Amino acid sequence: MDMVEAYKPAITMIFLQFVYAALNLFGKVVFLQGMSPRVLVVYKHAIATLTMASLSFLSTRGNSAKPTLGLKGFAWTFLASLIGITLYQNAYFEGLNLASPTAASAIPNIIPAITFLFSAILRLEKVDIRSLRSIAKIGGTILCISGAICMALLKGPKLLNSELVLSRSEGGNWVLGCLLLTGACCLWPLWLIIQVPVSVNCPDHLYSTAWMCFFGTIECAVFALVVEKDAAVWKLKSYLEMGFCLLGGTVVALSLFLQTWCISKRGPLFTAMFNPLCTVIVVISAAIFLHEETYLGSLLGALVVIIGLYIVLWAKAEEAEEIRKPKDESRIVQVIVDHSLRKAELEEPLLS
Known about the structure:
Layout (H helix, E strand, L loop, with lengths): L1 H31 L4 H24 L9 H29 L2 H6 L4 H11 L10 H22 L4 E3 L10 H31 L3 H23 L11 H28 L1 H5 L2 H15 L4 E2 H52 L5
Antiparallel strand pairs: 1-2
Helix pairs in contact: 1-9, 1-11, 2-3, 2-8, 2-9, 3-7, 3-8, 5-6, 5-7, 6-7, 6-12
């Protein structure tokens, strides 16, 4: 039983990577059928809002103290929905539409490196060029960004699927798609930073997330109404489109809960280590099921991104270990001192 409990976080993260890979593949299919990425984002987060609101209601039912946002919490939650849902989701799915599932799963691996870059600029992360860990983080960041650029600009010889059933976008669309995906990856670290004041003003994560999804749905709907002039794009034309909207909305709620649980068990570094698995799953599945063209430049770029990611994660793990080590040593010293004191007390005679 203990072994099963120990492997639960790993099994959960592997399951989530398969879910994310399925979303990338099905997303490309529905876009090829003509569905608008902007409409998808609206429907997806409308379903996520209903899911999170239901979970929040069930979790607070019977409690006398109901959670509230307050004015500051409202402002921070609205800003988080604008950056993490409206801008990020629209840029990500438009990039997926223009590029490919492989790019959409590989480029987000630069998020840890971009987060380090922003943290260093904001002085939230210490950088010492004389330290091997700092050099590793800087080098890993450069590798991640370079790999993303290689995926966008390099092709090289074609490795798989010369004759296509579903061909990927070519030329300028491919480059624009990769740039949108990279831009989305730059937005996500900002969303992570904003979660700090959101949590301070509203400790109930289910409640704040339900409001965030609601604000995001309204914002995305306004954006879609402005951009999409044809009312016919709002009509779901197949069961696949309806199923994908339902799956996407459910995954938003499911992944939030499962990732939060895994982080509480093993920490954020553990969850980030599984991100490249999604890239591998998508590359294999897209080549088999979508007959996606596979170029040497794209594969090399994805490999460089993954190598850079693991270099950054290694440096962060070493840094966390160094921070934890003095605490462990001080705890051991305290235990030894307490044991010595107790031993001395026991050796003293009861009557002096």
